Amino acid sequence: MWMPTEHEKYGVVIASFRGTVPYGLSLEIGDTVQILEKCDGWYRGFALKNPNLKGIFPSSYVHLKNAFVKNKGQFEMIIPTEDSVITEMTSTLRDWGAMWKQLYVRNEGDLFHRLWHIMNEILDLRRQVLVGHLTHDRMRDVKRHITARLDWGNEQLGLDLVPRKEYAMVDPEDVSVTELYRLMEHRHRKKDAPAQASSHHLFVQMKSLMCSNLGEELEVIFSLFDSKENRPISERFFLRLNRNGLPKAPDKPERHCSLFVDLGSSELRRDIYITVHIIRIGRMGAGEKKSACSVQYRRPFGCAVLSIADLLTGETKDDLVLKVYMCNTESEWYQIHENIIKKLNARYNLTGSNAGLAVSLQLLHGDIEQIRRECSSVFSHGVSVTRKLGFSNIIMPGEMRNDLYITIERGEFEKGGKSVARNVEVTMFIVESSGQILKDFISFGSGEPLASAYHSFVLYHNNSPRWSELLKLPIPVDKFRGAHIRFEFRHCSTKEKGEKKLFGFSFVPLMQEDGRTLPDGSHELIVHKCEENTNLQDAARYLKLPFSKGLLLGNSSQATKATKESFWITSSLCSTKLTQNGDMLDLLKWRTHPDKITGCLSKLKEIDGSEIVKFLQDTLDTLFGILDENSQKYGSKVFDSLVHIINLLQDSKFHHFKPVMDTYIESHFAGALAYRDLIKVLKWYVDRVTEAERQEHIQQVLKAQEYLFKVIVRSRRLFSLATGGQNEDEFRRCIQELLLSVRFFLSQESKGSGALSQSQAVFLSSFPAVYSELLKLFDIREVANLVHDTLGSLPTVVHVDETLQAVKLQCIGQTVESQLYTNPDSRCILLPVVLHHLHTHLQEQKDLTACARILSSVFCLIKKNSSEKSVLEEIDVIVASLLDTLLRTILEITSRPQPSGSSTRLQFQDVTGEFVACLLSLLRQMTDRHYQQLLDSFNTKEELRDFLLQVFTVFRILIRPEMFPKDWTVMRLVANNVIITTVLYLSDALRKNFLNENFDYKIWDSYFYLAVIFINQLCLQLEMFTPSKKKKVLEKYGDMRVTMGCEVFSMWQNLGEHKLHFIPALIGPFLEVTLIPQPDLRNVVIPIFHDMMDWEQRRSGNFKQVETRLIDKLDSLMSEGKGDETYRELFNSIIPLFGPYPSLLKKIERETWRESGVSLIATVTRLMERLLDYRDCMKMGEVDGKKIGCTVSLLNFYKTELNKEEMYIRYIHKLYDLHLKAQNFTEAAYTLLLYDELLEWSDRPLREFLSYPMQTEWQRKEQLHLAIIQNFDRGKCWENGIILCRKIAEQYESFYDYRNLSRMRVMEASLYDKIMDQQRLEPEFFRVGFYGKKFPFFLRNKEFVCRGHDYERLEAFQQRMLTEFPHAIAMQHANQPDETIFQAEAQYLQIYAVTPIPESQEVLQREGVPDNIKSFYRVNHIWKFRYDRPFHRGAKDKENEFKSLWVERTSLLLVQSLPGISRWFEVDKREVVEMSPLENAIEVLENKNQQLKTLIAQCQARQMQNVNPLTMCLNGVIDAAVNGGVARYQEAFFVKDYILSHPEDGEKIARLRELMLDQAQILEFGLAVHEKFVPQDMRPLHKKLVDQFFVMKSSLGIQELSAGLPASPVHFPNGSPRICRNSAPAAMSPEGARVIPRRSPLSYPAVNRYSSSSLSSQASAEVSNITGQSESSDEVFNMQPSPSTSSLSSAHSASPNVTSSAPSSARASPLLSDKHKHSRESACLSPRERPCSAIYPTPVEPSQRLLFNHVGDGALPRSDPNLSAPEKASPARQTTSVSPSPAGRSPLKGPGQSFTPSPVEHHSPGLLANSPVLSGSCSSGISSLSRCSTSETSGFESQAAEPRAGAGHGGPEEPPRKDSKTPPPYSVYERTLRRPVPLPHSLSIPVTPEPPAPAPPSPLAARASHLENGARRTEPGPRPRPLPRKVSQL
């Protein structure tokens, strides 16, 4: 039985569970689950990631965790009791996981890998926390690391900033808003500006010295040098190297590196250098022989320097190699580093080109303990520490140091009877008073053990040596007294013995007789001469001698011989125990000299602060001892000295000694009577403040009041303990009198000079520190009253000294933050005075930053849930005092212009944010009672109105996005929660006070505007949140948008007749609300529209205003990205809304105005469909067909249905911009023409609009004309440009503007030149069907014809479409899809090529018109397209397939001609007709005959450079005939059975026979022409053709003709080929076929051609989707090539241009003839086993490509038996066209491979049409008609023949377009905007009534003729909303 769980509430899944049992819940490892019930080892519950899905799961799969249950019962919430950092880590990592994968998808590799490392690091740290074995300090460190990484990741991923307290997340409900703001601000600042470390450390590691001339041991000495002050600033780091230049002690790595510590920020500058001095240990001369001397000396070697600034650029750990300079002049060794720094290194030699000192340097920042933790590797093996010289910037109490620094500077020595100067070596010892040498107290530098003696380096032959070597002597204090330093001087001989001869000594005592140590500075010591063997061990003998020249000069009686020789040293003491100051010693020994007390106290101020703090306790004991001795005499002096010492501790250098002072007062101070004298003197000073002229000393006293009060209080407590509390009343009276004096002094206003105000400021700055001391002696209320009175005495005049005002607020701020204020009892006393001062300052808008801080502190103490009486009373006081002022302050601040500087702007934002936080905190604390009291406090409605307007305005400001940083979502949600709570309270007041007769539009408008922008806030759009974030927000606040929406609806319902005031103003805002994808919100707000329509209908009888505003706003909002698919459905659906309201549509249907209402809803819904599509398409990056098509759809809608003139023109220009971006220049011109057609040539002024300036209508139309002409020019649509040129030229001519007229005529002429001279490609056309519900509305279940790009063939187009629609499925057949496809939730694409059918045949059929001109008319202004599909009707005759081969021809009529404003237009009408086999045969022969005549005519007219095309065409026809040829037609149609069974085909059979005979005559004439022009090497082929031709004639039963035929036979029905109407040299229809040489770079996709095998009996039901095109019987028939090489001698192929009607299952491959069955059966699978795509034909293998003639253009589907194997075999061996598409798209894999080509693949013929050398032939049948291919060397491209005049006998007539056809308004040639004219006025030209017949028509005349036909054919239908022709002022 299932039982509710008591304790098992929360767990983590430890093994994945698939949930295969009934009611099982599928769980993944790591999921967290909430458990509801349990039963026999099973739990029932849900995963927290999906709480809606509940189920059961095994209890063993879950690890239980402790959790706290909130709201037990049905809606209980589980809160894990684990560490909040762990909880946050877990949820954050889950959120990151999903985003991390998206980073990979978006190719953000860098962040992907960084985040991966951070996530792994967090997981490792999480394990450490969970294990629970960490120490408290380590746990803090780990949590700090975790939160730092979480914050970094959140910032990188754009997630929210998390407020934290002690590393744990803060619940906004548990803290006040001001505290939350401070936490957020702190984290934000920490993120923006990392804190600068105050101390820095330099880590140095010595690697090696690379030098070629080593061989001796070396000493390397590092130090830091200040080049600005020319002195070292650090001790030395000393290192010994062996003979190889490597560290000498490899086993002691700590000696190889050192840490230079305590560098201040001021020392990280460019003039601080690391200096390295290198000393060698060896012979005197570097080049001496080894036997010369056995004694070793320290000798200079080299120096290197490096600026520390070079390390600041990056914390590199890479090794650096420093250049080492050798010193040539030893006398300059002491300053070699200075010279190198000054770039005077030319005088020094480098040690070698590749030589140098290899070191590793790293700058570390922060406290030394922090460095130890973070860089443990540095300290793991130990590291020597190199200190700064002297004390660091901050002296820490307890620091024990006693270091004496001695610098061996220089000496002056005599020659001593030598001829050359001496080699002097100095030896130093420390000797105690007994004469014993102190062992191990000399430090050469860190890293080296202490030594007992020091030996200087030796400078060769130098009597004035300068060493400048620094040594540290860490001598203990007890050894200091009586000790001295002795320096011995020896001459180092360079002779063989290498002796060192003593010749003198010096000494200096460490401490003087009066107890002072050796003073810092330079000392000139006397060099006492001595013999070589003098014994200096008895120190007493020489200590009596003078040691310093300074003393000697002072005492002239002591003359000595040694005064000529001197030795200089510099000393510096760094000691916390010893002093060099005599005054200090005198003060400490005051009892021995009582008479000097006054002088000593006076001199105390002159003593250096570091000396005083060293002896702080002794000094204080001395002062209080003197006070006890004679307070009358010394009281004032002691007080002043105490003040001096206290103020000394305020210095940052000695700040850390304050705890020492505190400890002294608490533990060591014993002056029980001192308080009397201190109070007395302090009051005396305070009383004199107002009178004294000089305030400096008094200010010093006031500044020290904190510690004075500490001493006073401590003294009084000691007195009380000693006496049992005597004189308590007297003490209280003294304190109160003192504070009374203070209050009097504070209440004085400064007159004239500001000295008094400065003293007041000094007192106030330190006064809050006294509170805690007073609390030790007085009751808290007493202290509060004292402070209240003191602060209350301050002058309230705000125009006094600004400094005083700032300090006053600082004092109040410290008061609020003090312990005194935190107590509720004292707070109620202090709060009024605090608020009084704040109110005064806020009124004047002064010191806002300080006021904001104080207010924040005030509210930080008031937690959200504090409901104690005291808190409620405080809120009362604050509301009454500050609410109004706070609102005004926020309005004032936010209305100011923001400062430009980054720091001031940041401060500005901080102030605003703090005031906002204070306001929110106050409002959150207010209860019903507070709101009621507030509203009751207003005396008049005007006051209430002003207050409400103020509140609503402030709330609108708070909602602004810039109010808080973008990642402060927590803060924004809290603010919104407070706002909506307050609005709910205030809306009631709005209803009660401002309705009916008191209605106030302004306040209601402000309310609704606030509500709308509240709902539309980005931070409330939960749909954009992650699931976990959305869940948290809903749990804590619910959906605040819905709450506000319900309130808006309620308020709207209360308005009654006042609703009319808000119509139509509120339509836009409310519409914006309904576009939010929140169903509940939409259901609430959409009924308001019904209300608006209803009230507007009542007022004006219609709701045009509503409709207009609705549509305008809908466009702008949805363009911004708002709204979704559900919204459209909701607006139009029948779903019931909440409460009693039915759906909007149903409500409207009940009204009397339902028709117009329903119409509006329908219109809006359709508009939304288009706008949604437009918005989705515009999100794409590149311009594609979807964007353009969508814009066209929307543009049409605005024009035809909405009559929105301005929107229509806007979208015209949007479409124009899209076309330009896509380089669709022709379409861009047509688009701009739409706007041009709205304008007239008038002088009406037009306003500024879009990018157009203010100008007249004429000027704008002229500007448009020129832009359109330019685009037609760029799009090579020059004929259209010419028409516009003429139109604008007429205008120029009418105004006699001959200058512009001339330019226009020149432009027109240039367009004619371009028509004749420039190459123009003919595009392909493709039919595309878009099926399925997933397509955008404007494409869904529609078919279009698209104009392809230049060079774009079917496969490239297919690929482009599939790229634009990546989710689409390519359909494998060309059949019309069924209803299941239409309704599928998917995308299906059906694509194949179609053939354009030009409307005007006149130009195309006219003789002598160049192909350059015809090509334009073949592919422009095309309304009609077609494609063919072959199929067999009845049983197929295996012997002759053509008997049953039918063709299904589909014609497509478009809504608009191509090209137009888009590259594709929808199919308006489709017609299907069937052609019988006989009609098919007639059309094939007609086209082949026409092609032959064209080639012959071209050859005769010498338009071909060679006769290869004619040769191949003749060969194809004649050779095929020999092997069967037209005999197949005879067998099929001339037999008795066929004639009897088809009596109606008599005429057609006669026509076929006539064509056969015509072909024989043409062939004969062609052979005659061929013989005339054939080159010599082709003669054998010609002879063969003649022989075969006679065989062919005999097979046809034709009588033999005379061998000598005339040149121009009469047998041509249309006259000589030379004057043939179709004698143009190149084909101009899109059906023209083309053969491209194999090596041509402009190769085309292979076009499918079928052999006779394609209709074999084995696969009679199979079909191939053939990609050629078919013309009607009255047009030229041009053939596509076939991929088959099989002969048609025994069987014939189906048309390559048709698609079988067989079922798709059987439509897999072309059929093979019996002759080739064996190859197919052996090489291929059956068609069913290997289906092929119509869109992706099977590739041709390279080995098979030569078998096919790949022709670039589509051919018409026909059967022509006139092709033979030789025709296909031999030319095909010479050439093949290589498809530009990959091999994978070629039609065949082998000779017998099955494939299903595209049903229509059409290829443009116009690529090289202008070339006079190009002509040729093309296939006019499936695989057997005269097949022409060009040899690789010919360079020719096959062109199609021109259409014949007159209709064919068998083909169906082209269906005429119906008169009711409505021409679209976008064509250059048709216009329906205002009146039914076929041609826009801008393009129309007068048509000549009777043009001269012989002359070829001009483009203009041809165009006009075409337009007349179009006008007759089309009459525009009525429009639902006709658009006015004029655009008002646009």
Q: Summarize this, please?
A:
With 1930 residues, the protein is of the alpha+beta class.
Task: Provide structural commentary.
The chain has 1930 residues and is an alpha+beta fold. The strands form 9 sheets. Strands 12, 13, 14, 16, 17, 19 and 20 form a 7-stranded antiparallel sheet that branches. Helix 20 packs parallel to helix 23, helix 21 packs parallel to helix 24 (802-816) and helix 45 runs antiparallel to helix 46. The radius of gyration is 53 Å and the shape is extended.
Mean pLDDT: 75
Largest sheet: 7 strands, antiparallel
Uncertain spans: 556-562, 901-906, 1133-1142, 1599-1929
Q: What Rg, in angstroms, do the CA atoms define?
A: 53 Å
Helical stretch tally: 61
Distance between the termini: 79 Å
Give the helix/strand class: alpha+beta
Strand content: 5-15%
- Note the overall shape: extended
Annotation, overall tally of beta strands? 40
**Which percent bin holds the helix content?**
40-55%
Task: Detail the topology: elements first, then pairings.
Blueprint (H helix, E strand, L loop, with lengths): L2 E2 L5 E4 L18 E8 L2 E6 L6 E5 L3 E3 L2 E4 L6 E4 L3 H22 L3 H23 L4 H21 L7 E2 L2 E2 L7 H16 L6 E12 L6 E10 L4 E2 L4 E5 L15 E8 L7 E11 L14 E11 L11 E4 L2 E2 L9 H6 L7 E2 L5 E10 L2 H7 L1 H5 L3 E3 L15 E11 L11 E8 L21 E3 L10 E8 L3 H4 L3 E9 L7 E10 L11 E6 L1 E2 L10 H4 L5 H6 L11 E10 L6 H7 L8 H7 L5 H6 L1 H14 L1 H18 L9 H11 L5 H14 L8 H8 L1 H19 L4 H20 L7 H12 L4 H4 L5 H13 L9 H15 L2 H4 L1 H21 L3 H13 L8 H27 L6 H24 L2 H9 L4 H19 L9 H25 L7 H15 L11 H11 L2 H16 L11 H8 L4 H22 L3 H16 L5 H8 L11 H6 L4 H25 L6 H16 L4 H18 L2 H12 L8 E2 L8 E2 H18 L3 H17 L3 H20 ...
Parallel strand pairs: 15-22, 36-37
Antiparallel strand pairs: 1-3, 2-3, 2-6, 3-4, 4-5, 7-8, 9-10, 11-15, 11-21, 12-13, 12-14, 12-16, 16-17, 17-19, 18-21, 19-20, 23-26, 23-31, 24-25, 24-27, 27-28, 28-30, 29-31, 32-33, 34-35, 34-37, 35-40, 37-38, 38-39, 39-40
